[in-house]
Amino acid sequence: MARIQHVSAFFSLLLACAFAAQGQDVHFSQFHNTPLMLNPALAGSSDGDSRFGASYRNQWASVPVPYETLSAAFDQKLFLPVPGGSWLGLGGSMLHDQAGDGKLSWLQLSLSGAFHLSLSEAQSLSLGVQARAGQRALEPGQFSFGDQFTDNAFDPNTPSAEVFASQSAGFFSLGAGLNWAYSPEESRTRTSAGLGLSHLNKPSINFLDDGELPVPMLLNAHFLGLAQFAPQMDFAFNVLAQKQGPYVEVLSNVGLRCHLSVQKGKELAIQLGGGYRFDDAAIAYADVFFRDWQLGFSYDFNTSPFLAATNRRGGPELSVQYLIRQVKPPKVFKACPIF
């Protein structure tokens, strides 16, 4: 009972942080399929021994300049030769994002490491750290400035007084995270809740020669849950809140997963669901699980005031994951007698 109370208190604290938070950075609607973007403590947290993943998002394709985001990641479990079942997780990820007339882009490469402390056969507590390096770039020649309008007409050949000291800026960022996970062996139920922090050192990125502009710290509070309620049915529920400076983003989604086959080596399941990014978009999504593969598709329907330009078409998102599982030796070894 005491353990349940501790878990409930931890979960309540995470939700309080989530709904009190008010920011957004590069985001995915299928955030549950991009774990290393949420929290470095999720490195090595999959049901497999190794995990590959990739996501692609095309937002607001109906406007003249769409916003495109691509990510790819890999993480690996490293089991420790100590009693108790604790393990290490190591991972790396790449993110590229481009948006707007000036092709403002992010290129980020990150390395994550996590220590997973086994609390019991079903529970673990993880602490992770992350190092991230990258570049922010733009093409100011694509912009239009007020001093290029002459006689009420725009002349792209008219020089502008707006001067950019550089068109790219590198940065190095540090992050950390904490995560609690619950996954009993006798059930498909899986639950995790955590906090991830990025830009702890507040790196500076500036294209103008007017001093440093630090990147605000980014806070992610997340809850990822899957509950088995029937032999072939599961209920999925995920919540994410992000805060970065004065900006906030809160997103939740729910879904039903139907297992069409649970035969070993022929597993097949389909999950359908929907979600809502508060004050921004409604989301419909579908996931297909086949053996160790997971394919996801979602579509955003814009609900913010920007719908006047998008006609409610937010944009599609695709994701893929693949798990590699190693054959484990039996927990109990029985020697056969020799006659």
Structure description:
The protein is mostly beta strands. The protein has a single domain, classed as Beta Barrel (Porin). 8% of the residues lie in helices and 52% in strands. The chain is built from 3 helices and 16 strands. The strands form 2 sheets. It has a 14-stranded antiparallel β-barrel with strand order 1-2-3-4-5-8-9-10-11-12-13-14-15-16. A two-stranded antiparallel ribbon has the order 6-7. The longest helix is centred in the N-terminal third of the chain and has 19 residues.
Classified in CATH, the superfamily is: monomeric porin ompg
Low-pLDDT parts are 1-24
**How far apart lie the N and C ends?**
51 Å
Number of domains: 1
Assess the beta-strand content as a share of residues: over 45%
Helix % is under 10%
Main sheet strand line-up: 1-2-3-4-5-8-9-10-11-12-13-14-15-16
Question: Could you write a compact summary of the structure shown?
Answer:
The chain is mostly beta strands and 339 residues long.
Fold topology:
Blueprint: H1 2-20, H2 35-38, E1 50-59, E2 67-79, E3 87-99, E4 104-118, E5 123-137, E6 149-150, E7 153-154, E8 168-182, E9 190-198, E10 218-230, E11 233-244, E12 247-261, E13 268-277, E14 281-290, E15 293-302, H3 307-310, E16 313-324
Antiparallel strand pairs: 1-2, 1-16, 2-3, 3-4, 4-5, 5-8, 6-7, 8-9, 9-10, 10-11, 11-12, 12-13, 13-14, 14-15, 15-16
Keywords:
single chain, 339 residues, mainly beta, Porin, 14-stranded antiparallel barrel, two-stranded antiparallel ribbon, 3 helices, 52% strand, disordered N terminus
